[in-house]
Amino acid sequence: MAKTISAEGRDILIFFGVDDNYCPFLAVALRSMIDNASPENNYSIKVLNTDISAENKRRIAKYEQENVNIEFVDLNYYMQKVKDKLYTRDYYSKTTYFRLFIPNLYPQYDKALYLDSDIVILDDIAKLYNIDMGDNLVAAAPDDVIQFNPVFQTYVEKVVGVADYRRYFNAGVLLMNLHQLRRFKFQEKFVFLLDKIKFDVAQDQDYLNRLCKGRVKLFDRVWNRMPIEDPKIKPEDVKLVHYNLAFKPWHFEDILYKEFFWMYAQETEYFDDIQEIRENYTEAERFQDAKNHEKLKKLAKKESDCVGDDRKFGR
Q1: Which CATH class is domain 11-305?
Q2: Which of 13, 26, 34, 215 shows the smallest number of beta carbons within 10 Å?
């Protein structure tokens, strides 16, 4: 029988997917989560991985406390079935696909929250977890990068097939209705699509938007705030900052909300490691980051140009 959330909503199930290189940033995310967590909740954290070293596991495990449990889940055996089909580009790793397998990996649970590791949490994450999803498959925030870029807006509507770009969501902060995803046979459909369609631009996020459209609850972007200027959102209202794409404060100095990242980074024993990463990041690498973003826009435009357009004009 599937485990259901208690009436008080105090059992909070959270997944991360990381490789060894991202453990320092996972530590920052965990530190920020725990600092803002309520002692009345129990936080069960599962770290999906294929290659985390024993040393990093030891360092991350230190964040356990009375109401915070951390479990490392080795997906090597599970990923053997599909790893050759999983496409990645630039700085992405195949860990980005881990979230898609959570419903079938954990049939005993009805609900879970998946979080990317390049985040800081500024409020109790239980508030996001306890959002009422109804029978929607997922709940997520509109993707800021899409909302402010016409090239990507066209891409998600024409290529991914989302009716309105304002409903295209970012999958880095993803509330998952595991019960409904299993009933929908999400994993079976995803694996089928892998053989039929190749999304080069946002990969697993595009698959999620394609499969879940029509059954997505959108929540406020303050719970997945990207470092992009937006006068509509006040800094004091932000609940979670997501340093996605190349918006990394450990690579660049001029990143919006960088003060939150460094505040929590200083509380971790990875602080010196992160400082070293910043100091060793070269100008050539920074130039490549900018080049990759332009390349991504060109790729999105090229794919859009290859698809006919029957959308209604004058929305």
Answers
A1: alpha beta
A2: 215
